[in-house]
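User: Can you help me understand a structure? I only have the sequence.
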Amino acid sequence: MQFPQISRIISRTSLFIKSFGGQARGISIFTLLRILGVAIVCASFLIYFSDQNVQSVNRIDALEKAVSLKPSDFNKRLRLALSYEEEFKKTSNLQNLEKALEEAKVAQQLDPQNLNAQRLILRLNKENSAEIKKEIQQVATIVKNRPDYQAAWLKLAALYEKLGDEKNAHDARNRAKLLNQNF
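Assistant: Let's start by predicting it. Here is the structure, written out as tokens:
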């Protein structure tokens, strides 16, 4: 929400209070002033949190630009990976986690002896496998309820492949093939 919109809401609330002029319809001026106070506090929180999100996106954009200008800079790659990880923690968007992992791997290739990059990759892999396991559980529930759902079996196979579980991936792919011989 933009500041002018919040300001407009507050000014409308204050006009609403003035229009009643004290006691009106059973609402005291103090109650109306409390409502205005709550509106101001809420508006402040909205401004603060929207600024935090904008700053996070701007930081990622700036780091992406810096990395594109100098792709061999280890520190910028690692900072970009950390920013993606932070954004993943805020939004739970798996794309941010995958981008963080990709940038951390490139950073490790640039400096294979750096322990920070190695720790980050381990931490990201752990988070990634936990997210994949959650997704496997969701898709497994779907195929349990709808064993004829070929797309779900294929998704399950892809998820098992991401975990490195080739046996279950092969089994899920075979189940999908049984549902459609032309596949």
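Now, to help you interpret it: The chain has seven helices and no strands. The mean pLDDT is 81. Let me know which part you'd like to focus on.
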